[in-house]
Amino acid sequence: MLLNNLSNPLHYIAAIAALFIFTLSASAQELKGKVVDSANTSDPIIGANVVWKGTSIGTATDATGSFVLQKQDAISPEIIVTYIGYTPDTIQVAGKDFVSIPLAASGSLKEVVVEGQQTRYSSLTPTNSQIITSRDLEKSACCNLAESFETNASVEVSTTDAVSGAKQIQMLGLDGSYTLLTTDNIPALRGLATPYRLNYLSGTYIQSIDIIKGTGSVLNGYESISGQVNVMLKDPAKAERLFVNVYGNSLARFDANVNVATEVGDKWSTILMLHTDHLGNRVDRNKDGFMDLSLGTQYNMFNKWKYEHKAVVSEFGVGALRETRIGGQLEYDENTPQEQQPHYGTESETDRLTAYNKTSYTFPGKPYQSIGAITSLTHHKFDAQYGLRNYDGEQNSGSARLIFQSIIGHTGHTYKAGLSYNYDSYTETLTDSTFGRTERVPGAFLEYVYNNSNNLTIVAGSRVDFHNLFGTIFTPRLNVKFDATKNTIFRLAAGKGFRVANPVAENTAALVSSRAIEFREELQPEEAWNLGGSFTHYFALGGRPGTFITDYYYTTFTNQVVADMYTDPKRVMFYNLSGRSFSKSFQAELQYEVLKGFDVKAAYKYFDVKTTYSGQLVQKPMIPEHRFFVNLGFATPFDKWRADLTTQYFGLMPLASIEDSGAAMNMRESDRFFTTNAQVTRAFKRWEVYVGGENLLNYRQPNPIVGASDPFGSNFDASMVWGPITGRVIYAGLRFKID
User: Fold this and answer.
1) Contact 240, 261 (CB under 8 A)
2) Contact between residue 201 and residue 190 where contact means Cβ atoms under 8 Å apart
3) Which of 627, 593, 633 is nearest to 607 (CA)?
């Protein structure tokens, strides 16, 4: 498909780069290791920080004390290892592929505070980054990406409508479409996958999640506006040899997951990850005649391979997914033809195929210099029905990046330069209208990093892309990190983002209503500037570690595709922004270990999000101005027992009018409400049993479906969802692991 569209020399260059990618072998030569307690070397140290000396690049040890670093990130052959309550150590790793590091316990408060702070907010990266670890993921209900943010304050997950089961994330007060979602730093689950994309990635596939606020690095493209969510999939060389997870809840939803990892010879390793879930029970707790949750069945597979030999490491993977969903009235019969159907229902059937390859070669004797490449291919096809509307789509995408990294003079000045090529072919049909587009975007990028090895890191980057439909795109970005003290960090971020919207796929909630869909003009790409910063302070109080972080981000759009549900309750209108549109986001969070094994996280968030609708600047609907978050976590020694409790408060949200009063911008407000989730886990040698509950206070949005008694009438609207629908859900499950 790509070769059929090489209409100019830039396309030939990009194609040659893509072929080069596949002829190389993989992502980066690695240094592996394990951190243990020197007093008992059989005891791993979990959560120790391991960083290349002179850089801010590093990682944390996993549940077995193991870690992996990419050698091309090094500027010297030394690593620094730190952990709370232990003396830091600097290790020479020249010529080594594996190191075992025993750390000695220390009673020095200075070392506890400065060197060993364990926190979910990274002290290493120049960006404002938060890490959701595999341990954090196990605190939530199973088993997909949508449920992975329940114990995190930075990302919100909301239900888009009361019928179809689609969900979306929000960051900095903006819809998830403005957040770049990547897997292993490869853009994924974008475009037409948006409505259900959070269901397409099983939580059991995930090693960790990095949440980055702000536009981030130019290496990952131009689409990020509010931030990036990077999902790190399990590494074949590090994952459990066997992992099994089964789950069931009080709504009769069942999940089953099996991961199998093994080494194939001394150079290859692989992991096969399987997931399935099923909900076949029709539940209507609020007695409005509609199912509270859509029925569905998903089959999901991902196979990842890794090759390591000297300076070359290769990683590639393939994935396949099939999902069916049914929502609507209790009596809806999916076997009845649509034109004869007396009951309202939604149906969707999705087939998805993905493949990727990551490649890099590290120059012998130059750990700071490497050349690497990343490619990916995606096929996504769906057929969907929303009442009397049909919405079908197909997306075929390919991307390629070639990256060279080296230094300028000395290791305090490094840079990354490269070429990229993105291809997207979209075809969509909405009832009787067919539309689509083909995007071909070759580009080039350069990122410079200054690091004084003491307290200042500056990352300045820019990229130029040549869009076949919208011309030249220039994307500058800047991230600055300044360590005022060893415990106090300031960060500044500024940059521009650019994206081409998929208005129907990103607003499928509007299809679950009687509103007419109207495009008032030809839509232009969305462009926005993001400026913000953060303050992080690590401290010790009563001998216990804590972290305080606060951040503020301002996003302003120079153009935006406006989905207007304010102006007319009978229509949703799409048009280009004419006026202002912005988001102001403030967050303050405190993390503190109150007692040994007892951690507290508390956060407050404030959003001011406004958009111009038909000439009037008003609050964007269904975004709370105030939100509070509290998470309590307790674990006994050796994690034999674990317990977590998360409570969230949602303030008033503006809502679009559902009645035609004759007055423009006739608005109303939601209720204030709380939600509470809890889970208790009991661990054995290889087994874990967990029991929990979601929405334990049993709060439910009153009347989530307007006009439920007449779904084919002119007042039907299931898109105004701002709170929980299903009420209290109790669940249980078990995990089995063989390392």
Assistant:
1) yes
2) no
3) 627
CA–CA dist 103, 45 (Å, integer): 9
pLDDT in tens, 73-132: 777 788 999 886 678 888 888 778 888 898 887 543 333 333 333 446 777 789 999 989
Is residue 9 predicted with pLDDT exceeding 50? Answer: no
Distance separating alpha carbons of residues 298 and 369, to the nearest angstrom: 43
> In angstroms, rounded to a whole number, what is the distance separating the alpha carbons of residues 327 and 317?
33
Instruction: Evaluate the CA torsion angle 60, 66, 70, 73 in order and state its sign.
Output: positive
Grouping H, G, I as helix, E, B as strand and the rest as coil, residue 737 is strand
* Nearest alpha-carbon partner for 617 in 557, 674, 671: 557
Structural domains in the chain, CATH included, are 28-103 (2.60.40.1120), 227-738 (2.40.170.20)
DSSP class of 198: G
pLDDT in tens, 491-527: 999 999 999 999 999 999 999 999 999 999 999 999 9
Q: Taking CA 633 as the corner, what is the angle to CA 553 and CA 166, rounded to the nearest 5 degrees? A: 55
User: What average pLDDT does the segment 199-225 reach?
Assistant: 94
Q: Are 155 and 203 in contact (CB under 8 A)?
A: no
| 492 touches 479 (CB < 8 A) | yes
> What whole-number distance in Å separates Cα of residue 588 and Cα of residue 645?
20
What Rg, from alpha-carbon coordinates, does the chain have? 25
Q: How far apart are CA 474 and CA 465, in angstroms?
A: 7
Nearest to 531 by CA among 482, 580, 579, 477: 477
User: Which residues on adjacent β-strands are paired with residue 602?
Assistant: 590, 630
Alpha helix segments (H runs only) across 125-248: 134-137
Which of 689, 222, 714 is CA-nearest to residue 475? 222
Beta strands in 38-97 (DSSP E): 40-44, 49-52, 58-60, 66-70, 78-82, 89-92
Strand order of the sheet with strand 174-175? 156-159, 167-171, 174-175
**Strand duo 370-386 + 345-362: pairing:** antiparallel
Distance (Å, rounded) from C-alpha 246 to C-alpha 722?
30
The DSSP secondary-structure symbol of 54 reads T
Per-residue pLDDT tens over the stretch 345-379:
999 999 999 999 999 999 988 888 999 999 999 99
What six digits make up the tokens of 500? 């081409």
Backbone φ and ψ for 511, nearest 5 degrees, come out as -75, -20
Cβ–Cβ contacts within 10 Å for residue 419, how many?
21
What values do phi and psi take at 204, rounded to 5?
-75, -10
Structure-token pair, residue 74: 């090094």
Rounded distance, CA 724 to CA 721, Å? 8
* Token digits of residue 639: 């994690």
Lateral strand order in the sheet of 571-576: 516-519, 571-576, 561-564
Inter-residue contact 603 to 588 (CB < 8 Å):
yes
Angle at Cα 319 formed by Cα 318 and Cα 324, nearest 5°? 165
Q: With 80 as the cut, is the pLDDT of residue 26 above it?
A: no
pLDDT at position 7 over 50: no
Closest to 305 (Cα-Cα) out of 34, 27, 71: 27
Residues 6+ apart with CB under 8 A from 705: 162, 163, 288, 290, 711, 716, 717, 718
Q: In sequence order, what are the beta bridge partners of 540?
A: 545
Which of helix, strand or coil describes residue 78? strand
User: Distance between CA atoms of 120 and 690, rounded to whole angstroms?
Assistant: 23
Give the up-direction half-sphere exposure of residue 113: CA atoms within 13 A in the CB hemisphere: 15
SS3 track for 302-329: EEEEEEEECCEEEEEEEEEEEEEEEEEE
* Encoded tokens for 185: 């730093």
CA dihedral 389, 512, 194, 138 (to 10 degrees): -140
Angle of CA points 676, 681, 684, to nearest 5°:
175
Query: Is the per-residue pLDDT at 45 higher than 70?
Result: yes
